[in-house]
């Protein structure tokens, strides 16, 4: 969806140009986690951007952090869960406030401990069956990105 609010990039994409962007590019990470029942871990965003929308957990990479370190921290803060970071699934860029751009790298991850609870920027955190996704207000472009990365199948849409 070029020019939309959310642009999914293929893993092998080399560059993405966002026209009209004048601000900074802010590096972020996201965690794509399924449980043994095939449910997807989602959080309901408590703050902008996307307050009230469901998305995968994640956030900004702090100065000096690696992607993996940021993912572990964000997961602990937003969900109370400890994770093992897996492979990069893909990346997306989306507009943020003040003309900035969020450069979000989404990784597969596995839960290794903790108890699921909403915290930090998350208003809620829960496992969501794929069949529930159409009934939830989801961050724009998330389902399309997860489908293009083979996390979700085409059949549920």
Can you offer a commentary on this structure?
The chain is mostly beta strands and 157 residues long. It has one domain: Nucleoside Triphosphate Pyrophosphohydrolase (Alpha-Beta Complex). Helices cover 13% and strands 37% of the residues. The chain contains 2 helices and 8 strands, in the order E-E-E-E-E-H-E-E-E-H. It has a 5-stranded mixed sheet, sandwiched between helices. Strands 4-3-8 form a 3-stranded antiparallel sheet, with no helix packed on it. It is globular and about 40 Å long. The protein starts with 6 loop residues before the first strand and ends in a 9-residue tail after the last helix. The N terminus is likely disordered.
């Amino acid at each position: 969806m070029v020019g939309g609010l959310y642009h999914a990039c293929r893993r092998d994409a080399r560059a993405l140009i966002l026209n009209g962007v004048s601000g900074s590019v802010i590096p972020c990470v996201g965690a794509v986690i399924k449980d043994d029942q095939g449910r997807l871990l989602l959080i309901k965003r408590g703050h902008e951007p996307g307050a009230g929308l469901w998305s995968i957990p994640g956030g900004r990479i702090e100065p000096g952090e690696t992607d993996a370190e940021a993912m572990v921290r964000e997961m602990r803060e937003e969900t109370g869960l400890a994770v093992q970071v897996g492979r990069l699934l893909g990346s997306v860029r989306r507009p943020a406030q003040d003309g900035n751009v969020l450069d979000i790298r989404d990784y597969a991850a596995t839960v290794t401990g903790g108890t699921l609870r909403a915290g930090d920027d998350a208003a809620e955190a829960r496992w969501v069956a794929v069949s529930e996704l159409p009934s939830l207000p989801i961050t724009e472009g998330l389902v399309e990105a997860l489908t293009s990365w083979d996390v979700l199948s085409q059949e549920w849409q």
